[in-house]
Amino acid sequence: MPRSQARVSTDRPHRYAKQLAAHLGRKVESSWDEETGLGSVSFAMGTATLTAAPGALLLAVEGEEENLPNLESVVGRHLVRFGSKDELVAEWHRDNGEPGSVQRNEEEPPAQS
């Protein structure tokens, strides 16, 4: 099954993974294990795994090749929105060597006076 991965630098990987699993779990099946720092989300179009590692949240999505862009987008957009203050960026890399999508907070900062 085709796969895409992103390494999101953060000093709070457990917090963001737990929040992402809980939020997405309102619509689809998800799990989060605080002890192991591992989580998963099951979508109709594929799955996502969340791994809290030192200094980063490791994301992986797996599904049919035509579904990878949507899986990347759903997982990445939600995470970036939660981590807007920390300016999280999810840059995906597919296992076939192709670059995946990139999600980042695109909002303009407020003007300083």
Account of the 3D structure:
This protein is of the alpha+beta class. It has a single domain, classed as TATA-Binding Protein (2-Layer Sandwich). The chain is built from two helices and seven strands. It has a seven-stranded antiparallel β-sheet, with helices on one face. A hairpin with a 2-residue loop joins β3 and β4. α1 crosses α2. The longest helix is centred in the middle third of the chain and has 15 residues. The chain is globular. It starts with a strand and ends in a 9-residue tail after the last strand.
What's the structural blueprint in terms of helices and strands?
Elements: E1 3-9, H1 13-24, E2 29-33, E3 38-43, E4 46-53, E5 56-63, H2 68-82, E6 89-94, E7 99-104
Antiparallel strand pairs: 1-5, 1-6, 2-3, 3-4, 4-5, 6-7
Helix pairs in contact: 1-2
Compact summary:
This is DUF2218 domain-containing protein. By secondary structure, the protein is α+β, with helices and mostly antiparallel strands. It has helices spanning 13-24, 68-82, and strands spanning 3-9, 29-33, 38-43, 46-53, 56-63, 89-94, 99-104.
